[in-house]
Amino acid sequence: MEAGKPAVQVNGEIITKGDYQSSLEQLTNMTGSQGVDLTDPQVIESLKTQTVDTLVNAELLRQAAVKEGLVASAEDIDTRFNEISDNLGGAEELEARMAEFGVTEAALRRDIENEFLIQQLFDLKVFTNIEVTDAEVQQLYDQAVSGGTELPPIEEIKEAAIVEIRNQKAQPLINEYIQELRDAATIEVLI
Q1: Cβ atoms of 139 and 160 closer than 8 Å
Q2: Most C-beta atoms within 10 A of its C-beta, which of 16, 131, 143, 179?
Q3: Mean pLDDT, the chain, as a whole number?
Q4: Among candidate residues 44, 10, 6, 8, the one with its CA nearest the CA of residue 24
């Protein structure tokens, strides 16, 4: 069976051709819905490269989370799975969407688990080191207001502003952390 064969090996862990194909199909569908020309060979090659990079990065982060002893509880996974189902309009709609994208329930649950692991890892390695000052919150608020955005008083949106600033500060740190993991990894692309 072709889907079970290795597509990429990351520190000895296999990413299957089936996972690669499923991810590529999702990215292609999303890209196509944005009006990108999917007949352009350069676009197709770029999508393939992005898919491999995304899968490798996710696997490296999962491995790092496991190495740190992080876990996602069955309850957390069930809760998130049910939220996804509810947000889509129920189990039948979820099944239809999974079939549309070629995703099994087991694969979705694995992705949810990885999402929890990676978020915990980012919390541990990145977000705990990020400070947000009142001056930064005020600056973000002032920029939005001076740009013509009508906002409630700063006290009402302070928490949202803090999250926004933390996420902005985190992105370069996350990219740096992923690059460190990649530099230390053995990655073999087999497709």
Answers
A1: no
A2: 16
A3: 93
A4: 44
